[in-house]
Write a structure and sequence with these properties.
This protein has six helices and seven strands; from the N terminus they run E-H-E-E-E-H-E-E-H-E-H-H-H. A hairpin with a 2-residue loop joins strand 2 and strand 3. A seven-stranded mixed sheet has the order 2-3-4-1-5-7-6, sandwiched between helices. The chain has one domain: Peptidyl-tRNA hydrolase (Rossmann fold), CATH 3.40.50.1470. The protein is an alpha/beta fold. Helix 1 packs across helix 5, helix 2 packs across helix 3 and helix 5 packs across helix 6.
Length: 199
Amino acid sequence: MSNIKLVVGLGNPGDEYSFTRHNCGFMVVDELADRLGVSYWKSQDGCSVGVAKASSLNRKSGSADDGDLVLVKPQAFMNCSGGPVAHVMKRYGVKPSEILVIHDDLDLAAGKVRVKEGGGHGGHNGVRSIVNSIGKDFPRLRMGIGRPPGKMDPADFVLAKVRKGQADDLMALVYLGADVAQIAISEGLAKAMSKYGGK
């Protein structure tokens, strides 16, 4: 049975960040919302929140007791994600082990994804903020964006609008991330980790 009750995608609010590598967490959550029929978003606890009904989730147990799924996009900037996440978790009575945080990862090859359970922040400021607010024992879906070319500053790389020639690659990563998140949601974190939890 899946124990994922809340999915958090990390990103920065505002149109200027809408198609950047740093916002792939937001993009995966938006893709999940499309797949699960979530069309209404509300502003709650500093987050944009959508709720997928249990009937749309295809949980393996087939039990309505699994409940609805809360989709979350913190609307504070990336480095301040922890407070809003903590507040929305409290509102819905969700434990750290019951959330899945989706974020970009410079240290993972572009196009690759990895599921991990707990651990450090790996230098990611959004994850760092969440760790500081709720502790480190929450599952993550790491979205590989690779390292910037040449001597390009990593901050410029993650915040730059993706060029037309790279857009298909970013969207392929987003679709893969949504596929993996759905496995974690419907079949359980252990199943997702067995497929995408490589070292």
